[in-house]
Amino acid sequence: MPWETVQRLVGEAARELRRGVSEEGTRGSHVVSLVNAILNEALAEEATDIHLEPMGSGLRIRIRIDGFLRERPLQFPQEVAPVIIARLKVMAGIDTAKRNRPQDGQIRYVHEGRSIDMRAAVLPVVDGERMVVRIMDAAERFLSCDELDLTPRNREIFERLIHRSTGLLLLCGPMNSGKTTTLYAALSALNEPDCHIMTLEDPVERRIAGISQFQVNPEAGLTFVAGLRAALRQDAQKILLGEIRDRETAEMAVRIALTGHALFSTLHTEDTVSAILRMIEMGVPPYLLAATLSGVIAQRLVRRVCVNCREEYAVTVGSREALALGELYHPGMMLVRGRGCDCCHGTGYRGRMAIHEILPISERIRTVILAADSKRALQKAAEEDGLETLWQDGASKVLAGETTLAEVGRALYG
Ligand SMILES: [Zn+2]
To answer: How far is the CA of 311 from the centre of ligand 1 (A)?
Structure first.
């Protein structure tokens, strides 16, 4: 078991501390090896976050994999916990003397010849200091449009929407639903010498060569609105606006989209139709929204069935899954699930993929927006346009053997 190396190093670090080799722990060679081993194991498991929490007499280590927090069973003697945190604080350039307030810093860690950016945040809690190390590399991996898991139909609509030279394209979904990854993939596809692209972000997560990226900083007066004005003076053709949070930003975004610019942004709504209603609720006049909105994309992340332990099984008539599939079900249907193995730590899943709902704004939907009509009217118009909902896209990926109904249900209905 890989984490056994970590457990062995914990023992060695404890012995070293008892011998009094290093009081601060930061000079102790075993502590250095131990912290590196923790980072290496988390990276090997493709974790996005490492949580280090003081727990009564020791330390608990949990790592986030594919969106789920998992504990790694380790025993820590009391004296080792603070030196691990202290070592990480040194690596992140955080003041080790201050232990009474939240602090954060950056770690650049070299793993197997690759430089990996991490962000460390430390918070004083009752039992000591709690730290979360976010592994930026894994959290914000660059994908191309080919890797977005779009069905051929959705891929075609997506390409059409992102290549439009004017209008507003909205991406919606909760936190950590992969919206930024999709937007960055779109920007990379549009990143050509004849196109000036600007992004307004809070914060700028990843650098893209050839694109002007502006860090929004509301405390310093650099708001999204100020950024939008600046982008216009910089002759930007396509603008990525990190997020629409208030009425002022929403209105300005729509007005800019009306004047010959393409604008991409995100909203925290559940589905495509709710995004339209949210814009109207925020105070955007329906006639402006109808005139500028080119499309809405909703998405979620679901876990993939582990390829190492996948197995087929028959879905029986009348089972919960058969009922959930409704018309998609037929007797004798086979689906796929993961049995659980060492590769996936017994979960049956490894890696994630996106499911989508893409609504291009047609004349029919424009008319409904203009009438500022109900959610039901919008849904009906979208249905008549042949909208494939998040559920339908998820179900098609279940039938293709890539994920499970349980996973799609969890992503959509919690
Ligand atoms: Zn497996």
So the answer is: 10
